[in-house]
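If you are new to this repository, start here. Below is one unmodified record pulled from the training split, so you can see the exact layout before writing a loader.
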Amino acid sequence: MKTLIKSVAVLGLLFSSIAMAHEGIEIESSVPADNAMLMESPSELAVSFSKEVRLIKVVLKNQQGDEVDFDFTPPKEAAAHFSWSLPKLSPAHYQVELIMLGADGHKMKESFSFMVH
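And here is the target side for that same chain:
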């Protein structure tokens, strides 16, 4: 029984240290802002993180799940700020999904949404 308790304690420490490694990376700001309600189509999509990341995928989808092409190409270098020009967006609710790698190489996902009236 003592071996089981020690094993559970070690696994708990391991998983908490993995979670702590990712804890410091979050979206600091975005354009459009999360949950923004816009009266016209935004001209750009931008996101700033609290630390440098390597973006590997950014997807912009409308409420039907259709992807909007805005010529995303994964950057070769890590950075904390990224931006892209957007085509004219139709009135709809949009979701931005980001997949990135932290400095430790772990994959993380973030998302935010906005609405164009």
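Two things worth knowing about this chain: Helices lie at 2-23. The two ends are 61 Å apart (CA to CA).
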